[in-house]
Amino acid sequence: MENEKFQDLVLNHLAKLTQDLTEFKLEMTEFKEEMSSFKRETINKRFEQIDSRLDRLEQKQDNANQQLSQLLEFKTEATQKLDKLLDDDVDFLKYKEFQNEADIFKLKNQLKVIK
User: Which residue in 93, 46, 72, 81 sits closest to 54, CA to CA?
Assistant: First the structure.
């Protein structure tokens, strides 16, 4: 083989390898872009799931806080009513004690008269 033919053959192979390498680089760039897009979509979906979960947790917390507020209001009302009932009962017991003492006093006086 002649030197010129050999050089042409090597140059042709180098040109083909250069073209193949350029095509490979282009495909790799496209692949990287697709992977980046896929990663972004995946991350975005994951963040949407996390956001959705956080929204549900916040709603549950709001509901729990509302129920707690209602329970505290109920407790306050119940305590006030119970205190009033106890006050009324104590007043009634004092009244009854006074009446009983008065009745006992009357009975003692009547017993003195009978003796």
Answer: 46
- Residues 30-75 have pLDDT tens digits of 999 999 999 999 999 999 999 999 999 999 999 999 999 999 999 9
Which residue in the block uniquely carries the two structure tokens 């916040």? 58
Dihedral through CA 82, CA 85, CA 91, CA 95, nearest 10?
Answer: -140
Tokens at 92, concatenated: 């009634």
Place of tokens 């979960």: 53
pLDDT at residue 115 is higher than 80: no
Distances (CA, A) of 82 to 27, 68, 69, 76, 115: 81, 20, 20, 10, 48
Quick one: DSSP state of residue 115? Answer: -
Q: Report whether pLDDT(109) > 90.
A: no
Question: For the CA atoms of the chain, what is the radius of gyration?
Answer: 49
